Every structure is written in C-alpha cells, then in structure tokens.
C-alpha cells in the first residue's frame, strides 16, 4: 500500500509523529516535577495539610506522565539506526556522547530517586524525601539540557572537524559543542515553555473544579498558583522568545524569512505580516495583511533597517514556507493569549474576585491544553524551518536517510500510529480521569500493591509478614506535623 510513496518523506513523517507524541509528556513532566517540589517545600515550611494533599494529587498524574514520556521516547533512538543510519554514521562521534551523557546523568538520576519520591513518603525522613523530589525535578532539567544541546548543535554546528571518511569529529573543546551559539536561547525558551504548559494545565484543572464548587480550598490554591505563574512568567517567555528569534536571524536567516513570510527583500524596512497565504511556487505572500516596517523594528530595532528575503536564497535551500509561517503564528498567538489570561487574573486578584469570575475560569479551562499546542507548533517551526538540512548548512536531510524502500518505512509508521494512539490514548484518558476528580483532604498519593515495590536487594519486613503493621495507615511524620505535634 506504500509503493507509490517517497521513503524519505515517510521517514520524516515517522520521526515527526513519534517525537511530537513524545514531546507532549516531557512538556508536562518537566514543569510538574518542579511544581511538586514547590508544593512539598511549602508543606515542610508551613505544615499545612493542603499543600501535602495537592502534592499527592499531582504526584499520581506525574507518575503516569513520566512513565509515558520514557516509553514514548525509546523508539526515537532506534529510528536513528533504522531510518537515519547515514546521519548516525556521520554525526555519531558528536551527538552520540551527548546523548549518552543524558542517560548517564539525567536518566540515572531520575530513576534513582523516583522510587523514593513515589513510594517513600512514609519510609524515609521528610528531608530525604524532599531531597528525592528535588533530584527528580533537577533530573528533568538535566535531561532537557542534554537533548537541547544535541538539537542546538544540529541547528548551529560548531566545534567539530571533518574526518577523512566524512564524519563529524569533536574538535579541541567539547564545551564549544555543548554550548553551541543557539543553545542558551533554546534551553531557556523550551524550559520556560514546559513550565507554562504545566501552569496552564494546573490552572485549567483548578478552573474546572472552581466552576463546580468555588469554595473548594484545594482548587483555589492550585488555580491561584497557576495564575501567578502565568502572570509572571509569560512576559519573561515573550522576551526570551524575542531573543531566540534574534539569534535565529543571525545563524539561520532563511528560517526567519519563512516565519515572517518575506519572499522579497525590503531595503527600506520590512513589514510585519499578520496574515497571508504563502505561495512558494510563485514566491509571494498572497492576501498579505501587515504593519509597515514593524518587522525591521522588532528584528533590527530600527524601522528603516533593510531585511533580506527568500529571493536571496536558492530555491533548493528554502524551507517549506507555509508550514513555518503558520506554526509560528499559532505559537505566538497562543503566547499572547496566555499573557491575556495572566493579566486578567491579576485584575481579578486585585479586585478580590479571583475565585468568583466564572468567565476567567472558563478562559483558563479553555487554555488548559494551550501549552501543548504551543510547544508542538514551536517545535515544528524550528525543525521544518531548518530544512532542507539535518545538520544546518552541512548535511542535507535527503543525504542522511537510510537506503530503505517505502513499504518498509510505511509499515513501521502505520504500526507506530496504531500502537501510540491505543496505548498512550488510554494513558491520556486515565490522566484526564484523575484530573476530573476534585482534590480533597487526605489524598492517598500513588497507590502501592499489597506487597509493595519489588525488592532486589535484601529482605525488608512488609505488611504480609505482620498483618497488624501497615505503613500506609500508621501515623507518619507529615501527619504529626499537620496536627501540631
């Protein structure tokens, strides 16, 4: 059934599908891990049961999200060998160690402390448990650090030398590779996006429960915390995105030309096009609606500054303009919608109506999934805008693919689509079911089996050896703190 298809196109669709599906879960787990750390820290500082209840409520959601993120990401590594073997061979000496560092640092760190975080609340001291939560949160950041280092090097490759066999080999300093020119901007922009994704998920869940019962103290607290995050961090994210755009203009100008819809050069100041229909064959933006000279003002800080257009770029080196043009506007549009909700919440807070304005709650509920859409749109803008290069300016995507027939790639793509939507669809449904239940006093957190976690070293007395002893029901340190003892 795939005989008439292009194997390269199918390989690109397959990787785009798997990485987009995967990206949904880290976008939530990175921010949610930090949110859990904040909740536990506030509980330890204040002794208020409410913070512990919220910690246990979101811990269950984090556990499932983290697990699906790990599983959905495993197949991408295999695709480097199956669909992109030429890329792996040529770039392996550079990107291989960076991805190995991600496993040796972030993954082992998260795996080492995740069990304590999920199941150790009643088994270790409060300080040690908080340390485990902190290390998991830190591990998610370290994971993002290394993965974005790999991607940034592919976008702005530096610090390498070409081997006799055509391989990219590390140069004198690994630091030049790790901290490539686009890496700091990409890291800040992506991590802030993950935090905002989490904030609007938490805010959306809080708004859902406030619409049902505005007296729910737990819903009030999570909604308030989420709206503080939106009001304070969205402006920082807009500034970080602007800096990232300026960096992209310096190192990947055709990408910015596609984002702006500039087919023609503008020697006396370029307009900012709000709307238009890109026609790459005709090399024009049809039905364009724009603000004169505003693009030059934003990108060059001078309304009369000249800006080159795609007419300066060979046709075979131009990215697909329509995709980049529209995904960029989706990302920016959602960013300003987030800003609007954040400012609206500040107004409501100042008037003492944060928990009373139902239209604000409806807007927050509607914006709940906005972070996921924005990060996917931003990722598509970044990756499609890099085309036709897989290593920018040095290795074309068409030259990086494995010599496979279309039916082989198409069959695996079809299998991925079926399995991903089935397995992870059920996981997402279960997460939504957990979110639908209102948070309440005495949240139980992650449930354990009757025998508890599997023990691989030594034997620890458990409930089955002493029926009268159940660590999950005995008074614990946190329960003593809650009643003032």
What can you tell me about this protein's structure?
It is found in: Cell inner membrane; Cell membrane. This is Cytochrome ubiquinol oxidase subunit I. The longest helix is centred in the first third of the chain and has 40 residues. With about 475 residues, this protein is mainly alpha-helical. The C terminus is likely disordered. It has 14 helices and six strands. The strands form three sheets. It has a two-stranded antiparallel sheet. It has a two-stranded antiparallel sheet with strand order 3-4. Strands 5-6 form a two-stranded antiparallel sheet. A hairpin with a 4-residue loop joins strand 3 and strand 4. Helix 1 crosses helix 6, helix 4 crosses helix 6 and helix 10 packs antiparallel against helix 12.
Give a short synopsis of this structure:
The protein has about 475 residues and is mostly helical. The protein has helices spanning about 5-45, 50-80, 85-120, 125-155, 175-180, 185-210, 215-250, 255-260, 295-300, 320-350, 360-365, 370-385, 405-435, 475-480; strands at about 160, 170, 270-280, 285-290, 390, 395.
Task: List the topology elements.
Elements: H1 7-46, H2 49-82, H3 85-119, H4 126-155, E1 160-162, E2 168-170, H5 174-178, H6 183-212, H7 217-251, H8 253-260, E3 272-279, E4 284-291, H9 294-300, H10 321-350, H11 358-366, H12 370-386, E5 389-391, E6 395-396, H13 406-436, H14 477-482
Helix pairs in contact: 1-2, 1-4, 1-6, 1-12, 1-13, 2-3, 2-7, 2-13, 3-4, 4-6, 6-7, 6-11, 6-12, 7-8, 7-10, 8-10, 8-12, 10-12
